[in-house]
Amino acid sequence: MNDTTLKSIAKSLVPENYLALANDARLERDKEIKLLLEQRKLPTYGWSDTMIEYFVRELALLDSNNFPSRCGVGEREGRVICDLVRRRHYNFSHGIGRSGNLTDAQPKAVGSTIMANLTNCLVRDWIRSAGIPTCARATVIPVATGMAMMLVLRTVHAKRPAASYVLWSRVDQQSCFKSILAAGLTPIIIDCIAHQEDVPGVAIKPFATDLPAFVSKIEELGADRICCIVSTTSCFAPRSSDDVIELSKLCQRYDIPHLVNNAYGLQSTYFSHQLAQGARVGRIDAFVQSTDKNLLVPVGGAIVAGFRPDTVEAVAKLYPGRASGSQSLDVLMTLLSLGRRGYEKLMTERKEAHAMLLEGMVKLAEAHGERILPCRNPISIAMSLASFEATAGRLEMIGSMLQKRGVSGCRVVSTADSKTIDGNTFLRWGSHSSRCSVPYLTASASLGMEPQDVTNFLSKLDGVLRKYRTKDKGDGS
Amino acid sequence: MNDTTLKSIAKSLVPENYLALANDARLERDKEIKLLLEQRKLPTYGWSDTMIEYFVRELALLDSNNFPSRCGVGEREGRVICDLVRRRHYNFSHGIGRSGNLTDAQPKAVGSTIMANLTNCLVRDWIRSAGIPTCARATVIPVATGMAMMLVLRTVHAKRPAASYVLWSRVDQQSCFKSILAAGLTPIIIDCIAHQEDVPGVAIKPFATDLPAFVSKIEELGADRICCIVSTTSCFAPRSSDDVIELSKLCQRYDIPHLVNNAYGLQSTYFSHQLAQGARVGRIDAFVQSTDKNLLVPVGGAIVAGFRPDTVEAVAKLYPGRASGSQSLDVLMTLLSLGRRGYEKLMTERKEAHAMLLEGMVKLAEAHGERILPCRNPISIAMSLASFEATAGRLEMIGSMLQKRGVSGCRVVSTADSKTIDGNTFLRWGSHSSRCSVPYLTASASLGMEPQDVTNFLSKLDGVLRKYRTKDKGDGS
Amino acid sequence: MNDTTLKSIAKSLVPENYLALANDARLERDKEIKLLLEQRKLPTYGWSDTMIEYFVRELALLDSNNFPSRCGVGEREGRVICDLVRRRHYNFSHGIGRSGNLTDAQPKAVGSTIMANLTNCLVRDWIRSAGIPTCARATVIPVATGMAMMLVLRTVHAKRPAASYVLWSRVDQQSCFKSILAAGLTPIIIDCIAHQEDVPGVAIKPFATDLPAFVSKIEELGADRICCIVSTTSCFAPRSSDDVIELSKLCQRYDIPHLVNNAYGLQSTYFSHQLAQGARVGRIDAFVQSTDKNLLVPVGGAIVAGFRPDTVEAVAKLYPGRASGSQSLDVLMTLLSLGRRGYEKLMTERKEAHAMLLEGMVKLAEAHGERILPCRNPISIAMSLASFEATAGRLEMIGSMLQKRGVSGCRVVSTADSKTIDGNTFLRWGSHSSRCSVPYLTASASLGMEPQDVTNFLSKLDGVLRKYRTKDKGDGS
Amino acid sequence: MNDTTLKSIAKSLVPENYLALANDARLERDKEIKLLLEQRKLPTYGWSDTMIEYFVRELALLDSNNFPSRCGVGEREGRVICDLVRRRHYNFSHGIGRSGNLTDAQPKAVGSTIMANLTNCLVRDWIRSAGIPTCARATVIPVATGMAMMLVLRTVHAKRPAASYVLWSRVDQQSCFKSILAAGLTPIIIDCIAHQEDVPGVAIKPFATDLPAFVSKIEELGADRICCIVSTTSCFAPRSSDDVIELSKLCQRYDIPHLVNNAYGLQSTYFSHQLAQGARVGRIDAFVQSTDKNLLVPVGGAIVAGFRPDTVEAVAKLYPGRASGSQSLDVLMTLLSLGRRGYEKLMTERKEAHAMLLEGMVKLAEAHGERILPCRNPISIAMSLASFEATAGRLEMIGSMLQKRGVSGCRVVSTADSKTIDGNTFLRWGSHSSRCSVPYLTASASLGMEPQDVTNFLSKLDGVLRKYRTKDKGDGS
């Protein structure tokens, strides 16, 4: 209701002085919204659900499908026939972007346009505050990380049509590798450095990246024929983050684009620091992360961000046609709900959960005659299962025993597995390196984990390991 | 968002000319709301769900429990701890009324106050348009019809403390009778006139009221000792409506208050006409109806209305303390959703369903050697079951067979039943008259009934009656 | 989906072993519901919103208005025409109770019946755990406290029709007093004991009740002519709780029914203890409390509870007709959401908030040359304003200054006010006693108050008091 | 609640015989769900919202993020931090697909898996019933049409890596053209046939496709170097559908893949027939359509369908990583809500709206000295504006005047415009052909259009054209 409407409320309905107090509160609320629209920065404190819905609904009412008298003769008028669907999208229907550009304004959908653009502004502000202050542009892309990587690869390739090789530091997760194939490019797999075992006097290599191998491949193929280098930060232990800083320097030196797969990396300031530093001393064209893992929204969105606007904008321009606004809406509501303080709290709690998980797993490893595999990974932890493999040899049983006890996300990797994707064979799949030699299980402390989850997991893991040993054959019941 | 907020939307978020068009639509919407608040009349056409929710939410934001910065040190601050509960009440929490009066404004709850008062205005407008143009005041009371009757009885008694008798034209439905007992008053039951059977040459008496019996009771007890007369319009066949007009004249003549139990009577212009006429030529202090049956909302509310403001206001003033606003909200949303046209459509469809049902039951009665019991009842129809009783004598089986086939609301009344409530015995309970002599079943065409319901019912009834006859003992399977 | 449905999920839709794990989780969930239905006790830990909605929706599906094929020919078929209304009531529509009894089962509404009865069971369990272990029966009545008191009064009077006096220990809140008038009974006001000022050597009287005055009134009127005694626990300071224990003894001695207005008393174990003890050593027929204040739901419901089933059941039987199920639903969802632990936490936090508020107000009083008025009240605190009245004489200004700063619920009571309700005059209205002589303001620490509310209030109060003094005339800006 | 739970409902909560009836209804509901899961076909009649939500929520409860006791130590556990976001996704969070394949089952998300796979089955059934009975496979892809085309192009190219040309029958809508560029392929634009003007004795060519030009291009480039041919069915008038049947024959003859951009073509049986015939007599590898335009859901999804499973499956396999399940959910809810009959009704109404719109525009054209441009287009209609261009020359004013009056979707195309996309120049952009010579406006009768929309539009268009003429310079106010 605008100011005129409010004034029309008859005294017969409510006394004027009561109304005046209520109007003060109304103005206070609108002031906060005004501030958001003007500054386009994360609010310090999270908004209440009521406030978020108020704002989001007001935006949706600016879209033509919600106009009281409308007369649509186009081929797409934002009509939604199922009421349940209409409701769950808060009356948004037109999606975002236009044929020409994912970030273009839609004349028919002013509210959706504001919603999407504001979300991108808030996302940038959030990335900056998460440890990457030099982030220049960020865009929510309504596809998950793999597809977003593919789009960025295509964008980069469009500028270097003759360069079809992608140098990729191996990480044993299909999605990123497949994005290279889906983009029609040729992956060159650079195997990870296997971590040095606890040889006395030999320091643990903190990074996974085989830099010399990268250099020799570049020299071999020629920089001009390399579309880009793809590095990875967040990943399963025992793989560590790639040495983003050194790779960035390399890319700058050879003038090769550099994409960073930062899938769930915004959860840790350690990764953010790598990115900020890499961009300062070298070249990073874009870094890509998922919305679900970093912002705890349903799967389906990714954020493409960069230190200069160009690559991010080029991705938006490459995007053919309109797109779902659903992911932007999820991100917007979540960011408003958390506020800066809310996100900081999540980050702190995650860090504490990681410390707690690490401590517990160290103890457990000791008790079972195993060890934590050496690596620098602020999220994922790997514990060896060497003695268990020796005993029974059916390690996958441990995984399914855990699953039956409600544990999800715990990966058991035996040394025997290998995998072929589209003609590319990965020895010791799951270990990120063909030189790895020990079976292990991993557990992660990711955003939203609670202390109780850690305690439960440790106790269940202990129980399962004991049972497995006792039964010898581990029938898993 | 107020006008200033909208202007603060940066051009970087959306182009100005696009925003201007969206703002036009926004102003159009607010204009409609302004009109409602100024005129306080039913809109001609129903509003969309989006529009209704927009309006209701804006109202709720005027309540102090939704103020962004609030500091509550009272004993009741409208806090709602369960989010699901908060949501389903659209953030309304303070209820309506104050200790002093059900219709008083609450300083803490401006939105709830407007909501409740506006609803009462719309309800009055709706009653006027439903055939009672002289209705002067109407109030939604958040209790069902029985309790509402009890409140009105207590209000009337408060003004006539020495008069403790209530003359009540018998209707075999417990709730109204119990409201007299609950009010602490003494009911005097005036048995209904049993309808003349089809004696050739004898006209059917259109009304149920035994007027001479009323007169003689008044003379016997003395008008001063009679708290009021309670008559009933809508009821189950074979009872007809009371002769509201003649009773009104009687009440005027003897200066006795007159309450009409119009439970689901607003569905039929026939009843409305009785009320309007009764008030014109005689005395009606208040008429009471349910919100659920006349407006298709969940059970829980009633409307007390009158032709002068005094009794309705006195009821509101008698009400001790605050009350639920939930029923007013249901009524408000429903009236806005229907609009004048929507309600008219429902009325027309109901009338058509009744005609269809009557026609079908006449045919069915004929086919089974029964007849439709004579009465003037625009909603409920009674069909005799004389030959069925003769056959097997277990008529209740017919009811349960229908129920098993998904038929609800069909009442089978055998002549044998009688019932005692708090010391008062009702011979042939269910027949509204101790002189009734035929078993029957009833079916109603009430608001919201669809043609398909009629067809289904007729076919199922036919099937059950056939089966009952065939099996002779009717085992109901 | 029942077990057969689940088995029908084709392998082409999802692999069997995946489905098996999901089914385990499903069984776990259903087990918890089974436990609730069997034990009918508060769960120890609160349920998630998802779980609550799952349960509530399943119940609603048992009501006939939600049957896939239904054929309704009654006068009330639970049809809901406005979709928004339907949704907000979770598809419940039939209300609770039947003509005969508020707690009777409805054949058409099995889900509503279970919902209402289960809620009553959980409420009893909650009251027991809140410090009244001997509570025998409790019923949610879908009217607020005042109306509920009125119903109980009418119920008691129905058994003692010749007894029309209600002995009432004065408490200056209109609703309870009006309920006596609305019930058609005659209130006898027993003025409260004014608290002894800090006369050295004189102990503060912990209770408000003028027991000797009660005794003399009983003797004067005769116990047979007294319908009941109404006492009050929770109330605004400087009134303390009535001496429920001694009044209970009195009632037992004279065989007079005893009703306790425990409006928001379940928040404090102090009041609960009074009630439990009173029933042990004397007579308490029923105690009445609001759902909104004790359970943080929207205004509209009350709980009538007793130490023997009879009075509570009699109230349910007196209730004429059906009633709203909305309040029971709010209570059910809230109790499931909190669980036993959740409510305990709320109680603890309230107690802490009270201690914090008291400490702060003591300091503030000292700083402004005032004092906390002596009384035993675990919720409300009163601070004198004697020197402020002396200065400017417009104490109400303090109230409106606080209101403008967002403070609600702080009552400023000047000694000058008096009030007449229906012919009964209350000297020094607001002070609960005609012998009170000091102006004051009150603040309460009620359920749901947060530490931040206390801090905010204290700081705002300090500011307002300073400003008022400075400006002398306190223009309130 | 499963069967055991139901049995645990104590008699003290509800009588057994009442419960039995409710259970019958419950079984009836579950039977319908069982049928859906077993047959995986569109229900004949649409389901109620209550039923749809019941089903969808039951599915979501099978996902691990909703398990009562869960212990997640993975990097993605489906946690959703913002309650509003959780609610609007009905507790679905894991998305669909796995790294390996968009249609793979997720062990952690059984409900999401069933939901997505079932949706695909229903979509296929719906396409079959919409006039393409030979459709073998269909998959909802959670990207809009443009991106879906790009994915299909990349999939086709992956099998023909040496073939980089895409022969594309020009249609002046950016999104499809951009999808070729985004896929990294080289578009060969085949200009459309301009329709013969009303030369007496010359029949109007029903199709837009310049078949001889296609043949000569194939001969020129060589079939092996052509990745595929892209044809279009639904488009803006005055362009007609491509001659899908002849192009299919051509593709078969030359062994070239054939993709059909059927963006909003499922609305018209005319297009469906083309596709079915094309596949019967020639080659169609896949046809792509939007979910928003054909099913009236929010923008964001597309359906890739084919007459053999292979291409559709290959697209799903190419998709790198997981994806949003939001679009599948929208489609599922909408299809269940409509049922077969509901969709048929929408189709019929659209056809009627088109006839009505055409008739009205023919009259309008006549009145203003213009004509309807000849073409075979069952959705979009183009009316010449030759005389208007002659008068004032600022045709875009007509568009903005319409917009100000609430008309959206009406495109005004002047002959002067031309556009360059990524180096490709389109003469007379908007006319689909460089040989077109007349300015015009278009209006469409698309799904969901109501008769009132047509009437409103015609009246507004008439008004605007008159005003434009009068003012001569048409200042648009």
Automatic annotation (TrEMBL), chains A, B, C, D:
Q: Name one GO cellular component term.
A: cytoplasm
- Residues binding substrate: R98, S99, Q106, R322
EC number, as in UniProt: 2.9.1.2
* Residues annotated for pyridoxal 5'-phosphate binding in this entry: R76
Pathway, per Swiss-Prot/TrEMBL? Answer: Aminoacyl-tRNA biosynthesis; selenocysteinyl-tRNA(Sec) biosynthesis; selenocysteinyl-tRNA(Sec) from L-seryl-tRNA(Sec) (archaeal/eukaryal route): step 2/2
User: Can you tell me which residues bind tRNA?
Assistant: R280, R405
Locate the N6-(pyridoxal phosphate)lysine modifications and list their residues.
Answer: K293
- Recorded catalytic activity of this chain's protein: O-phospho-L-seryl-tRNA(Sec) + selenophosphate + H2O = L-selenocysteinyl-tRNA(Sec) + 2 phosphate
Q: Which cofactor does it need?
A: pyridoxal 5'-phosphate
Listed under GO biological process in this entry are:
conversion of seryl-tRNAsec to selenocys-tRNAsec; selenocysteine incorporation
**Which Pfam families has this protein been placed in?**
SepSecS
Keyword list, A-Z: Cytoplasm, Protein biosynthesis, Pyridoxal phosphate, RNA-binding, Selenium, Transferase, tRNA-binding
State its location(s): Cytoplasm
Q: Cite the GO molecular-function annotations of the record.
A: O-phosphoseryl-tRNA(Sec) selenium transferase activity; tRNA binding
Give the site residues for May act as a substrate filter by repelling compounds with a negatively charged alpha-carboxylate: E75
The record's NCBIfam families line, in alphabetical order, gives:
selenium_SpcS
Q: Subunit notes for this chain?
A: Homotetramer formed by a catalytic dimer and a non-catalytic dimer serving as a binding platform that orients tRNASec for catalysis. Each tetramer binds the CCA ends of two tRNAs which point to the active sites of the catalytic dimer.
So what family is this one in?
Answer: Belongs to the SepSecS family.
Function field:
Converts O-phosphoseryl-tRNA(Sec) to selenocysteinyl-tRNA(Sec) required for selenoprotein biosynthesis.
Q: Any idea what this protein is called?
A: O-phosphoseryl-tRNA(Sec) selenium transferase
Q: Which organism does this sequence originate in?
A: Anopheles stephensi
